[in-house]
Design goal:
The chain is an all-alpha fold and 468 residues long. Helices cover 71% and strands 0% of the residues.
């Protein structure tokens, strides 16, 4: 059961008791309660359709002008802060400088939006966001030097981040019912008038509308406004499901989830969670259908639900994908008992490029001869110690000779403190080889007294505790 279900299933008396227990020790909550009380008791300050449009047009005009004021070919270098201290090519510096100017404009908007949130005026907030969206769509920004692939698409991506930031602030604020209702009425009325049949526009506001709906106790009223808007339910499937669920329309919720889950990952996850609790067969069927479309994403979700008992084949596929994408050996230990030869061979093939992780898999499978072969085939010395470490006690003779040869050969051909640190690590490994303690002492002394004299090598050996 998630928080939402627990919260709304709790009696009002319990929720009131919890509020009463924390509000006396939180000045911010006290101020919000006063605003909420005043907003609820006073006649609602409902802005007219004309006022709603005026806010949109004013915001559009202001921010269109600000966006178009950014000169990408000659950005404001005084406010430019390099993202790092290293070398930055000129073309990247121009892009970074322009991005920072755009970010400042968006920060200006967020600051104003937060004030509107504090004043509990969500209808004006959604009008401002609509105006910001239109300013992005209408802005004509010259980019002859090609700093951006598509400047308007870049700004639209930033709009999404702004919306996310505003939603997070809105979640912390109490809102009266009439303010929420008015925001829905004004937004959907504007959609009908200005964007009839346009599914693309409304979709950008879905997270904000869901957040407003989460704060409403009368979602049936909001659902009615949504129903009357003429906007297709497939435009905002997450909002659709939320309103149906909160309004207690379970059958309609399920039908909608089954209709939209292929096109909306959040809806699909909600449907899968429901079926996991109520219909395991349906859960497996939908999970099998969705997994191939985005193995990376679905493996992370399904790992918390799928089991060998529920579906061995899907369980193996999910955990193989987790191993491939994360290179975490714990995932291999979980799936190992359920792998057949074909599964194992396919996994090994997928891991060929990451030799250090492949060694961990071989070690877990006690495939020591494969590790030895990997050591033989490996021509790079940077991961040599990680490759050979698991077989030190399995092939002691081979490992000592291999490490000794590697150290001597490297000393003959290469110089530098990084190289000496590696050699010191290799020599420390020799101490773990059974039966070679005396030979290791001799080898350490041989390397330490190398001619010509190498002070940095001796220093690294002392740091590694090989000599006193």
């Amino acid at each position: 059961m998630n928080f939402e279900d627990i919260y709304f299933s709790a009696p009002d008396s319990l929720r009131l008791k919890f509020l009463d227990a924390i509000i006396w020790h939180n000045d911010k909550l006290k101020k919000e309660f006063i605003l909420f009380k005043e907003s609820s008791e006073q006649k609602p300050d409902v802005i007219s359709d004309n006022a709603f449009v005026e806010i949109i047009d004013k915001t559009r005009s202001i921010y269109k002008h600000l966006f178009e004021g950014v000169n990408i070919e000659n950005p404001d270098w005084e406010m430019y802060h390099p993202p790092h201290l290293g070398y930055i090519p000129d073309y990247e510096a121009y892009q970074y400088a322009s991005e920072q100017e755009f970010e400042a404009i968006f920060e200006n908007f967020v600051s104003k939006a937060i004030n509107i949130i504090i004043e509990q005026r969500p209808d004006e907030l959604i009008a401002m966001l609509t105006g910001l969206y239109k300013s992005i769509q209408n802005a004509g920004i010259e980019d002859d030097i090609g700093s951006f692939n598509d400047i308007n698409e870049y700004l639209l991506d930033e709009f999404g981040k702004v919306t996310h930031a505003i939603v997070e602030k809105l979640r912390l604020c109490a809102l009266s019912e009439n303010r929420i209702k008015n925001a829905f009425i004004k937004f959907f009325g504007y959609c009908n008038k200005e964007y009839p049949g346009n599914e693309y526009f409304a979709k950008h506001f879905e997270p904000l509308l869901i957040t407003l709906a989460e704060k409403s106790k009368n979602t049936e009223n909001l659902l009615e406004i949504y129903d009357q808007s003429g906007i297709g339910k497939n435009t905002m499937p997450e909002l659709t499901l939320f309103l149906y669920k909160r309004s207690g329309k379970h059958d309609t919720w399920l039908l909608s989830a089954l209709q939209f889950y292929r096109d909306s990952e959040p809806v699909a996850k909600e449907l899968l969670t429901y079926y996991y609790e109520t219909n395991k067969e349906a859960f497996v069927s939908i999970a099998r259908e969705l997994f191939p479309a985005n193995k990376y994403s679905w493996s992370r979700f399904l790992q918390n639900y799928i089991s060998p008992q529920l579906d061995r084949e899907l369980y193996v596929k999910v955990f193989i994908q987790l191993i491939i994408s994360s290179h975490e050996i714990d995932y291999y230990h979980k799936v190992k008992p359920y792998l057949n030869d074909s599964d194992y061979n396919q996994l090994i093939k997928e891991l060929k490029l990451n030799k250090t992780f492949l060694v961990l898999v071989y070690e877990a499978n006690q495939s020591y001869s494969e590790i030895k072969t990997l050591v033989e085939e490996n021509t790079s010395h940077w991961d040599f110690d990680k490759l050979i470490a698991p077989i030190l006690t399995i092939y002691p003779d081979y490992c000592f000779k291999r490490i000794k040869n590697q150290a001597v050969k490297t000393l003959e051909t290469e110089r530098g403190r990084d190289i000496y640190m590696l050699i010191a690590r290799w020599l420390k490994l020799c101490r773990q080889i059974p039966g070679y303690q005396h030979d290791t002492i001799i080898l350490i002394q041989q390397v330490y007294t190398h001619k010509p004299n190498l002070p940095a090598l001796k220093d690294e050996m002392r740091k590694a505790g090989l000599v006193s």
